[in-house]
Specification:
With about 120 residues, this protein is α/β, with parallel strands linked by helices. The chain contains two helices and seven strands. It has one domain: Cytidine Deaminase, domain 2, CATH 3.40.140.10. Helix content is about 15%, strand content about 30%. It binds zinc ion (ZN). The site of zinc ion (ZN) has 8 residues, from strand 4.
């Protein structure tokens, strides 16, 4: 499925999760409907350190179709680390990073290879 957009409510929730977790990092999995990212699945035990996002995949329900991932960078950098790219490779096609201070523009979307991908925000 080609993922081209995210619902504004889902993006707002990711930014709020970044604020609430700060200065720690959160990680979540994303699911989509009709090509639009619409749901966020916070995986139990996924709150990690500052270095990289770690999702415990044994906690992921087997029926969850994973579109991608989202995690926060409390240091504010909006590009993936090497560890992030290794994680992206096994967790779907679209990967969102939200960064401090978690404002409306403090996020980016990446391909599994770590290249920036345009993602439209829809109501
Ligand atoms: Zn990261």
């Amino acid at each position: 499925m080609n993922i081209s957009a995210i619902q504004k409510s889902a993006l707002d929730l990711l930014l709020a999760m970044g604020r609430e977790s700060h200065p720690r990092e959160f990680a979540a999995l994303l699911t989509a409907e009709s090509g639009v990212i619409s749901d966020i699945n916070l995986i139990p035990g996924s709150i990690g350190g500052e270095a990289s996002a770690q999702v415990p995949f044994e906690m992921v329900p087997l029926n969850l179709h994973v579109t991608g991932s989202a995690h926060s960078h409390p240091n504010g950098t909006l590009f993936p680390s090497d560890a992030d790219i290794r994680f992206f490779a096994v967790s779907g096609s679209r990967h969102i990073i939200v960064g401090y201070p978690y404002g409306p523009d403090d996020w980016r979307c990446f391909s599994p290879e770590g290249r920036p991908v345009r993602l439209e925000v829809v109501p």
